[in-house]
Design a protein that fits this description.
The protein is mostly helical and about 180 residues long. It has nine helices and no strands.
Length: about 180
């Protein structure tokens, strides 16, 4: 039996593997295509994970946040364009969403005033940036909700078959 790691600063890859209570050998067996030595190098930070490895770990570790982490922190393009989203409790997500939506509603008329002429004047820039920031908060909250639902599906806390069927019905309605 492998001994438990006592390392203090474990990266996300090691944390998620250990949450499954898997040794590197067991993780390698479950992942199928990643040898234990490579897992060790990724976890120690000596090598970066490849995107296909991250996708596989996301599925097997039941950790949808891993793809977002990879894109936001390790991918060159993602570091510039993808914010890191943390999984939160549903209640916190809903409260943040409602707060951001209320703020957006209050700023709706100002946004129309600013953008109606297609030009952002110097005296409008601060308000425009504030509105952009609020819209970014909404976007982050939507992503947090998506990650939360993916985590609940992965953990079996939402019935996957019922979820897929409901999504299919919704898409069928939208098409027709």
């Amino acid at each position: 039996m492998a001994r438990a790691s006592t390392k203090e600063n474990k990266n996300i890859y090691q944390q998620l593997r250990e949450e499954q209570k898997w040794s590197r050998d067991k993780a390698s067996q479950e992942l199928g295509t990643i040898p234990p030595e490579r897992i060790e190098r990724i976890e120690s930070g000596r090598f970066n994970a490849h995107p296909d490895e991250v996708v596989l770990m996301t599925e097997k570790y039941k950790a949808p946040q891993l793809c977002n982490y990879y894109c936001a922190n390790e991918c060159e393009i993602g570091r510039q364009h993808v914010p890191e989203v943390r999984i939160k409790d549903l209640a916190q997500i809903v409260l943040e969403m409602l707060s951001s939506l209320n703020s957006a509603k209050r700023n709706q008329e100002r946004l129309i005033d600013i953008t109606a002429d297609g030009v952002i004047e110097n005296d409008e820039i601060n308000d425009f940036i504030g509105i952009q920031d609020n819209l970014e908060k909404i976007s982050l909250t939507v992503e947090a909700l998506r990650l939360w639902s993916e985590k609940m599906l992965a953990d079996g806390k939402i019935d996957l078959d019922a979820y897929k069927e409901a999504k299919k019905r919704k898409q069928d309605v939208e098409v027709h």
